[in-house]
Amino acid sequence: MIASADIVEAFKLCGVRRGDVLMLHADAIVLAQLPPMTADARFDVLFNALNDVLGPKGTLVMPTFTYSFTKGEPFDRATTPSAVGLLTEAFRNRPDVRRSRDPIFSVAARGRLADRFAEAATDDCFGPDSAFALLAQHDAWLACLGCSLDRLTFTHYVEQTVRVDYRYFKTFTGVCVEGGVETPGTVRYFVRDLDRKTTIDLSRLKTDLAQAGRLATAAVGRVGLSAVRCSAFEAAARGLLARSPSGLIQEGVE
User: Could you report the per-residue pLDDT of 194-247, keeping only the tens digit for each?
Assistant: First the structure.
């Protein structure tokens, strides 16, 4: 069994401090290690622990991606559920959390910069004014709790910045709903070339980061935690892509 203090200690061991910005990708399996309690109580333990880590001046960001426009569905940031896990949906529904308007890659945020993430530009999923650019601007921590580094969506921000040759821009149209009012919208997304093996594979990047001492790790019971700063991630990814243009995808493994 684990307790809230174990979660707090793991993030502190990785270097996350009060006032930091943290983008968290997590699997709910970590909460199965808590003593018997309701699902809502388990979520409270995790989010309260992260609040203890980041403090009142920190910001917690989690993915609440819906891929709505790619599926031809309307997007309502108040009601459209997250498609990327129970934890993200639980976080989205907390009263002190704000969500961005991106109809494909929305994020939810709590803390000092929550409003800035919620109002980030939505015309380009990974563009210079997107929520992911804001992560880079504040050199946020990128963390994976109970999941692989391959889940780090910030990878796509780097890929777009570098203009990798296995992705291309595609514009999606759809309807955004706000307070019951429907508004047509468009968003540009740097999609992957499906004729190539373009699924993310960060195994080589993970090795590079570890060898450079830039990847922090800790354990929360039986579940692993990995964390890296945006600046370190981007620098290592750019270096790898310079050596191997397919270094961040499965195609580059072969």
Answer: 999 999 999 999 999 999 999 999 999 999 999 999 999 999 999 999 999 999
The predicted pLDDT at position 253 comes to 76
Banded model confidence at residue 106, pLDDT cuts 50, 70, 90: very high
Give how many domains the chain has, as a whole number: 1
Residue range 15-36, pLDDT digits in tens: 999 999 999 999 999 999 999 9
162 three-class SS: helix
Task: Check residue 108 and report its DSSP letter.
Answer: E
Q: SS3 of 210, please?
A: helix
Closest CA to 61 of 2, 143, 127: 143
Instruction: Look up tokens 């929520």; give the residue.
Output: 131
- φ/ψ of 33, rounded to 5, equals -85, -5
What is the C-alpha separation between 42 and 161, in angstroms, rounded?
38
> Which structural domain range is residue 66 located in?
4-253
HEC secondary structure over 41-76: HHHHHHHHHHHHHHCCCCEEEEECCCCCHHHCCCEE
Rounded Cα distance, 78 and 108, in Å: 11
Separation of alpha carbons 111 and 98, rounded Å: 9
Pair of tokens at residue 18: 């009060």
C-alpha span between 212 and 8 (Å, rounded): 25
Question: Could you tell me which of 102, 105, 78, 104 has the C-alpha nearest to residue 92?
Answer: 78
pTM of the predicted protein model: 0.96
Residue 21 contacts by C-beta under 8 Å, 6 or more apart in sequence? 58, 59, 61, 113, 135, 138, 139, 140, 141
